[in-house]
Specification:
117 residues; three-stranded parallel sheet; HMPDK_MptE; 2-amino-4-hydroxy-6-hydroxymethyldihydropteridine diphosphokinase activity; ATP binding; 6-hydroxymethylpterin diphosphokinase MptE-like domain-containing protein; MptE-like
């Protein structure tokens, strides 16, 4: 943590109690915490790509059998938080997964969304 003091133009986040320059903007999993962070800084558009809140765990996630139930519970919690945030956010919200309050998109629409004002 001593190295963090030297970082410039960097925002630290945590899921727990904030300390110093490390902030808790909300969220639970890495993906939904990023959405809360972007929302805090009033991003005009927030696009989630590949965040799957279903029961399939990706190969880059912790996928041991004993972690599966916990991982799926965390994903469900993250999705609920995003659905809650969608009701309050002023950002245009997009996702390749189905999330209430987000516009569901496919990859082909990304360029159009990004280029819109």
């Amino acid at each position: 943590i001593h190295l963090v003091k030297n970082f410039k133009n960097c925002v630290g986040t945590t899921q727990t109690k904030p300390a110093g320059r490390v902030h808790n903007f909300g969220g639970f999993t890495d993906g939904d915490r990023c959405v809360f962070l972007a929302n805090h800084f009033k991003a005009k558009k927030i696009i989630l790509l590949g965040m799957d809140f279903g029961t399939r765990i990706g190969r880059y996630s912790k996928s041991k059998v004993e972690n599966r139930t916990t991982k799926i519970a965390k994903l469900r919690r993250g999705k609920k938080l995003l659905e809650w945030l969608a009701k309050k956010s002023g950002s245009d919200l997009y996702s390749t997964s189905k999330i209430k309050g987000f516009t569901k998109i496919n990859l082909q629409k990304i360029d159009t969304i990004i280029s819109k004002n």
